[in-house]
Design goal:
Recoverin, domain 1; two-stranded antiparallel sheet; 10 helices
């Protein structure tokens, strides 16, 4: 990562260069600001090599649902992911389009059966049809909202067969007490959604995490979930 932001090869990274690069993580400005404050220990607006690695580590923690704090630095997390289409970055040298899908075949068969039982129209399920399945998990509404946000990859307010499988995968992870990530891991992006430009997978999440915090316009089910939860209980 360092050569991408340290073009002068001076062994340090300026705040302006780091900001552009860290934005590609898909995390909110608030989280990135916290990461910068923790990494820039002397407050000079410049990161040396060691501090830059701390920032990368904190990005990885945030992307995997861990606290952004120095205590998280020693926890085992996968490498951070950045949505730069020009380089494969830290995917073990593999372009994300070649990554095996995290949803296993036998699980996909189960998820497809649930999908078909919900009467999809033109291969799509609306938020209203997915909502009861999500609520049935008894997970907190904010977690279910994030599950929807991550699984509605093309942001059309509907889930197709592959997106529904992503939602179910995330729900089962949450039920196993695994944190739901803040941005969709490359391995979870369905192969059908990885081309031509969705190599990074998380691109639509960047505007959504920054701009849809006010009214949940692009996330109808989240609004529905929040409003209707007491009734279902």
């Amino acid at each position: 990562f360092l050569p991408q932001v340290d073009s002068a090869n001076a062994g340090r990274v300026l705040a302006s260069d780091a900001a552009v690069f860290l934005k590609k993580s898909g995390l909110t400005d608030l989280v990135l600001g916290k990461i910068w404050d923790l990494a820039d220990t002397d407050g000079k607006g410049i990161l040396n090599k060691q501090e830059f690695f701390v920032a990368l580590r904190l990005v990885a923690c945030a992307q995997n649902g861990l606290d952004v704090s120095l205590n998280s630095l020693n926890l085992p997390v996968p490498p951070p992911r950045f949505t730069d289409t020009s380089s494969p970055l830290l995917l073990g040298g593999t372009a994300s389009s070649d990554l095996p899908w995290a949803v296993k075949l036998e699980d996909k068969v189960k998820y497809d059966a649930i999908f078909d039982s919900l009467n999809p129209v033109n291969g799509l399920l609306s938020g209203d049809k997915v909502k009861p399945v999500l609520l049935n998990s008894k997970l907190p509404v904010d977690i279910l909202g994030r599950v929807w946000e991550l699984s509605d990859i093309d942001r059309d307010g509907m889930l197709d067969r592959d997106e529904f499988a992503v939602a179910m995968f995330l729900v089962y992870c949450a039920l196993e007490k695994e944190p739901v990530p803040m941005s969709l891991p490359a391995a979870l992006v369905p192969p059908s959604k990885r081309k031509p430009l969705s190599v990074p997978g998380a691109m639509p999440l960047i505007p959504s995490s920054a701009s849809t915090k006010e009214p949940h316009q692009s996330l109808p089910p989240v609004g529905i979930l929040a409003a209707k939860t007491p009734l279902t209980q």
